[in-house]
Amino acid sequence: MRAPILDLLGVLPPDDAFRDVDPGQRRRRTHDAVRRVFLAASLAQPLCLIIEDLTSGQTREFASPLPRRLVRTPAVSPDGRWIMFQVYRDGAWLLDVQRGVMQRVLEDPSAEEFAWSPDGRRVAYHSQRSGGWNLWTMAAP
User: Fold this and answer.
1) 3-139, what's its fold?
2) Beta bridge partners of 47
3) pTM of the predicted structure, to 2 decimals
4) Rounded CA separation 85/39 (Å)
5) What are the tens digits of pLDDT across the range 8-33?
């Protein structure tokens, strides 16, 4: 049995775009409002990123790119093509949703809480890379 443990972070559609879901298991929709992304745990998979197609109900699961490392703070690009996320203490990773390929794009182990610019050209995040918490931006793929 799987239980979602962390919501997607990012820009949300209007409140009336959500269907009624148990508040403890709320999942946020992507910008196209036909998919939702969430993190979930199960006995077989300690923590994985899941994309659910709201039209068909089909899901795609993506395990952490590093064994036994938590996947955290996912953020979906405005066009729905990319998901930026943190692998705990290993930096920022990017998932190409269509191809299912992940790559590390930032080696800063403290980078987290990603937010895409509305045009999808930049990603903001916070990090301790300068010794204290600050906001940073980087070019998107």
Assistant:
1) Neuraminidase (2.120.10)
2) none
3) 0.73
4) 11
5) 333 333 333 333 333 333 344 455 56
